[in-house]
TrEMBL record:
Residues 3-215 form the NAD-dependent epimerase/dehydratase domain. Residues 243-289 form the DUF1731 domain. Pfam families: DUF1731, Epimerase. InterPro entries: DUF1731 (IPR013549), Epimerase_deHydtase (IPR001509), NAD(P)-bd_dom_sf (IPR036291), SDR39U1 (IPR010099). Belongs to the NAD(P)-dependent epimerase/dehydratase family. SDR39U1 subfamily. The lineage of its organism: Bacteria, Pseudomonadati, Pseudomonadota, Gammaproteobacteria, Oceanospirillales. It comes from the Bacteria. This is TIGR01777 family oxidoreductase.
Length: 293
């Protein structure tokens, strides 16, 4: 397959490339400038380069987007998050000479807003908030590719667990025994192992029955305090030091909602398809990741 990939140097992108390079795909990585991190077998292209490519891509895998949890959500930061997701997706669509046969685009469970109550399926109305506004706009830009020529698949990701990503940021404080429940720890913690993310992407590449939006989260429902205890155990450390909501609000402002809120998300459409999760309990997922360090 001819594959165009954005976000190739990110957490999911690096893991996906390791998988794709074992197969006979022709991979184009969308970059702002050439990166020495990427395998020499990968063709690096800019937005302007796309305008010169006449052939159709079989798949465009859209993983680009600055880390939403890296910095507080100032007006400038919100604009950067929007541009790295929505604006970039729109620019790729405008630059491509021919539409891709398939678009696989990421979103997040933040689509459902800053919620702690209720259960959310793919068609459940969302709550308000910046995370929802950002995800909804990103999904809309991905949906604009949909046509008789292009099949669109959108994955709403939970917290992706693997070597890197969110766990990397948590690892040091938990190793020091400073992990624990956040804001009481009763908010839901939708999660997914990186291997299941890669599996879902590959299935959507190769199975034309995948179409529309899917919640890409493990089927196990856990609260944040349960996750904290399980992560501490995987590192052989205690995890009982609480982090109060007021302190996070003071430190992070609106962005604190990523940690203090969490909805109960159901991977309903994947379950309907018979998707078999490699990791459906968080203890097993965290044990596997601990072995990879």
């Amino acid at each position: 397959m001819r594959i165009l990939l954005s976000g190739a140097t990110g957490f999911i992108g690096r893991s996906l490339l390791s998988t794709l390079l074992h197969e006979s795909h022709q991979i184009y990585a969308l970059v702002r400038m050439n990166s020495q991190q990427l395998d020499p077998r990968i063709i690096q292209v800019s937005i302007d380069d796309l305008k010169l490519i006449d052939e159709c891509f079989d798949v465009f895998i859209n993983l680009a987007g600055e880390n939403i949890a890296n910095k507080p959500w100032t007006k400038k930061r919100k604009r950067a998050l929007f541009e790295s997701r929505v604006t970039l997706t729109n620019r790729v669509k405008s630059a491509l000479q021919q539409p891709p046969k398939t678009l696989i685009s990421m979103s997040a469970v933040g689509f459902y807003g800053a919620e702690t109550d209720g259960t959310f399926y793919e068609n459940t109305p969302p709550g308000p908030g910046f995370a929802h506004d950002l995800c909804a706009a990103w999904e809309h830009s991905a949906d604009s590719f949909s046509s008789q020529q292009t099949r669109v698949v959108i994955y709403r990701l939970g917290v992706v667990l693997g070597v890197g990503g969110a766990l990397e940021k948590m690892r040091l404080p938990f190793k020091l025994g400073l992990g624990g429940p956040i804001a009481g720890g009763k908010q839901w913690f939708p999660w997914i192992h990186i291997d299941d993310v890669l599996q879902a992407i590959c299935f959507a590449m190769n199975d034309n029955s995948y179409s529309g939006t899917y919640n890409l989260v493990a089927p196990q429902f856990i609260e944040q305090k349960y996750f904290a205890k399980a992560y501490g155990l995987s590192l052989k450390r205690p995890a009982f030091l609480p982090m109060p909501k007021w302190l996070l609000d003071l430190m992070l402002g609106e962005m604190a909602s990523l940690l203090t809120e969490g909805a109960r998300i159901v991977p309903h459409r994947l379950e309907q398809k018979g998707f078999e999760f490699k990791f459906d309990d968080v203890e097993g997922a965290l044990s596997d990741i601990a072995l990879r360090y």
